[in-house]
Design brief:
This protein is of the alpha/beta class and 275 residues long. The protein is built from 11 helices and 6 strands. The strands form 2 sheets. Strands 1-2-6-5 form a 4-stranded mixed β-sheet. The protein has a two-stranded antiparallel ribbon with strand order 3-4. About 3% of the residues have low confidence.
């Protein structure tokens, strides 16, 4: 076999391999393009106006982009009712609209997300804690939301509804749990979603670490501040709580913690304070 023929064979093989690897991604891209070319249902627009006032505050171009993100989420992710709840379009659209805020600038999807489980109200989960001497203490937690690395988001409809109703209180269970999903796209939730490589990743780690310590210091002095105290739990919760404030109280967060706001702005590729 001549060198030219061998080179041609290698090129063909490389093209076939590339096509095989890119096939699922291209199919997903084409499918999403078809979904977003459909008209946004009038009934969904009514739900957005009634249930998600924050969506009305977006610039017109962002509102259109949000609707496309909602369409893709609802087409790709099943919403499953728990504890006898029948999931309605009102629930699905309300949840998807708030989750789609996190993808508004980033694009793409929640890579690991497989399903959204919806309870009618706060739900109970078992808890085990190891105490002194290795003694395990069993307990129960009452939660409004939860995010699992294996691709499940669990939310309580009453908390979703109330969180959406007041778009500026800094408390939004959907934003919180879906921020965990972004975090879990890169592995275990540790407050380090993908923001880029190299200097970008290093800047994120440095600033978020400094801000986490600053929050602990502020709480130790019993001083008021924008970030809710729950953000001091760990790095993952810090990112999730900060995300709630980023979307619901952006001007206050930017004024009080400008370095933190700048990192979140780069993460989400948005500047809500400008809205």
């Amino acid at each position: 076999m001549s060198a030219l023929v061998a080179l041609g064979v290698l090129v063909v093989v490389a093209v076939l391999v590339a096509a095989t690897l890119a096939g699922p991604a291209l199919a997903r891209l084409w499918r999403r393009q078809r979904i977003t070319q459909r008209p946004f249902p009038a009934a969904w627009r009514t739900i957005l106006r009634r249930r998600v006032p924050l969506a009305r505050e977006l610039p017109a171009a962002q509102q259109l982009r949000l609707k496309k993100r909602i369409q893709v989420l609802l087409a790709e992710v099943p919403f499953i009712g728990c504890a006898g709840l029948k999931v309605t379009d009102e629930m699905r659209v309300t949840i998807a609209a708030q989750a789609a805020l996190l993808l508004l600038g980033r694009g793409g999807s929640f890579g690991n997300l497989r399903e959204v489980l919806v309870y009618p109200g706060h739900f109970v989960v078992p808890r085990s804690e190891a105490g002194p001497g290795g003694v395990v203490h069993e307990g129960r937690d009452v939660l409004a939301g939860q995010s699992w690395q294996r691709g499940q988001v669990i939310v309580a409809w009453d908390a979703v509804r109330d969180g959406a109703a007041d778009p500026h209180d800094g408390a939004n269970v959907v934003v919180h749990e879906f921020a965990h999903q972004l975090d879990q796209d890169t592995g275990v939730a540790n407050g380090a979603p993908y923001v880029g490589r190299g200097a970008l990743q290093q800047a994120w780690a440095r600033v978020m670490g400094d801000e986490f310590q600053a929050l602990h210091a502020r709480l130790a002095r019993d001083e008021p501040g924008v970030l809710a105290p729950y953000a001091a739990t760990n790095a993952a919760e810090f990112f999730a709580v900060a995300s709630e404030h980023f979307f619901e109280q952006p001007a206050a967060l930017a004024a009080e913690r400008p370095a933190l706001y700048e990192q979140l702005k780069r993460c989400y590729r948005l500047d809500p304070a400008a809205w």
